[in-house]
Design a protein that fits this description.
This protein has 15 helices and 41 strands. The chain has 808 residues and is of the alpha+beta class. Strands 11, 12, 14, 15, 16, 17, 18, 19, 20, 21, 22 and 23 form a twelve-stranded mixed sheet that branches. Strands 24-34-35-36-41-38-39 form a seven-stranded antiparallel sheet.
Length: 808
Amino acid sequence: MPSTYPKEAVSWQARWIWLPDAPTQAQTTMQFRKVFDWQPAGPARLLIAASHIYRVYLNGALVGRGPDRADPRWPYYDVYDIAALLRGGKNVLCGLAHHFQPQPGIRSWCLYAGAPGFLAQVESGGRVLAATDDHWRVRAAPGWRPCAISINRFRAGRHEFDCAGYQDLQAALAGDYDDSGWPAAAPAGPWPEPLPPEIPPLQPELHAPCNVGITQPHPDAIAGWRELRGRPEAVPMRVNPTPEGAWITLDYGRPMGGFPVLKLAAEGRGTLDLYCGEGDTWLLTDRLLLAPTGPVDYMPLDWRGGQRLGLHFRELTAPVSVQRAEFMEMVYPFETRGAFRCADDNLTKIWRVCRETAWAGIKDHPVDCLNREQALWLADITVHNRALAACFGDIRPTVKAMRQALRGMNEAGIVPVPGPSGLGYLLDGPTLNWSEMTLTLAITLADVCRFNPDRDLLAWAWPRLQKIMAHFQQYADARGLLDNQRPGLPELKCFGGWNPMLKSGVTCAFNGEYVIALRAAAELARAAGAADQALDWSAQAHRAVLAMRTAFWDNQRHLFSDGETAGQRLTQFSPTANAWAALAGALLPEQAGAWAEALRTAADLMPSQTPFDATLLLESYLRYDLDLHARKLLDDYWGAMVREGHATLPEFWHTGYRGGLQFRATSSSLCHPFGAGPAFLALEYILGLQPLAAGWRQARVRPHALGLTWAQGRMPTPLGEVEIAWEKSDARWEMEIRLPAGLTAEVVLPLLSWGRERLLVNRREVWRTDPRKEYQAQLERKFTAGGPREVRTSLDQPGRYLLVLESI
């Protein structure tokens, strides 16, 4: 049942509760129960939270699961409309609450920490019908066994479930169950009042496997699997006991995030190990102890993810029937507002793969991958946010992610990375892990406010942004460049991309990112009314970019060095450092052609190893109008993924290298949104649409053909969709543009040739050129400075425009 946003402030009568004298194992699962009366009285709702996971039932029906993962100092609650599940008289609310506590000294990177607790309140007719207190009953949930084994260093604990407890667990959902032997609940916490949900609720979508693989060392291990290949959702498998055991692998066609759903019927005992797989990375996430208790429905309480499930049956004493093996994907309710198609089918497919990756990477917060980590990495959302804006026009998950990150910032301006939980992070330790990523918060916040200005968000974030920038400015040397090993300060850890490059000392990549963050911060300062601060940050950015040109540009190689050591420029180069330098503006326009050719042809440069690094390079090519290099990168890099049949973008991808380190293309995550750059760059550069004013009140349309004969698409804005379609030949460029109300646009088209041309807007000529005047000036030795060979016109009203630039 979908949850809803709260319509008004919550008056909490409920109190956080837990089992008295609860065990202190790494993970525990409790079952809470309350019987209450209800008489039909209009709307009714359930407000609920837990640390850290709940699943709740009303009169035996599943209501929902949650809450959103968060730092336990700022937990969330969920709201459900439950009127359709209530019945007159007695009603039973029953919840499972699962808590994971990392072992001392170990931080579960992205998800959990804090004390256990459960909070619930039922409201109807202006009254509170049930609220968690010491009248609720609670017990250790039957079947759910304590387990101290973490799935990996990023994730919480492995689930272990004894199927012998399933029937009693389910029986408690019914109204006639006797819970008088359960202990009364005890207060938990202290806990803060939870926050309301910040994004719409995720929607469940069930998927049957599209392919089934069997590993059966004994010919009698599995029966029924041939039929299952034809109708996987309908035909059960029978797994027979053999000394070697048996494996079943279920492929769902693409990476997903959510919950496996199994229905098993065991005739004896044994063990089922459940693995989640994505590429070569498989994680043992769940262990089921089978028992002859009849059919058992199993769904993990915690998040799972991947493209494949592996079922390993071992030590069976009797056959097991697998009656159901589906995956419940939890889907963010995006509306597909953005669109892109072009003359090259491969480029169209690239855009769609990037869109699907950006979509799949939004769960209860933006996640870097669906299986291994499920973490909130700040550098990733710089790309992810722009992809969401271009494809869906919905950036609420990004705003939530920024709020989560900034809440955990300490007084020194240090933000824990990754997130969303900051507990256990050594903020004042000898090193600040991944600390360079905090710079990207300024960049992403500026992108958010550029897309749709939010004064409340900016006012809340502004003092935190000032602390972040002040923290990094401590590391500036006399030239204005950052030294992440500045004497007397904790070392900053630079990410900047996975490609090998210099990441310690005075580095090109770190300083390029710093310049971009300073400019973004200056833009936000102007929006916040802090003109003096804006001038100061702009001046620092200008000074730093000039210093980058002097410190890192190698005039012999036509490349930026990776950085310097002991004041000496290194003879080490990487495409990622060069991309950061170009995006920062350290590359002069007259150097761009030689620079791009040096990147393309240098034998000692490792090509991009990840789509994130490639996204940086692609945008830098497009910023400098290097259309041929941009098209080649799209075709050779992302195009290779599409030709290999990837449904989403892998974390690592290489197209060959002449020696040195290479990442395996199939390793790690197969759905990593940090490389979805073509999702927005195709609309921003091939269609040519970019905002000139916050909130899209003004825009520029400056298309790049990239060798295409036509392209069309749609960009969502807060004012509505902008639709663009163009066709191009040697002698004609025809473009149709539809603008929503409130948005004006400047159109910039490159000239077709050196001959006579004219521009028509809605069949009316608005511009014409006669190059014979230029020829005459040359003959008379009247040389003039050359300007850009392009024509401009303005579109000031909403509606449809037809523009034609043609040779005459």
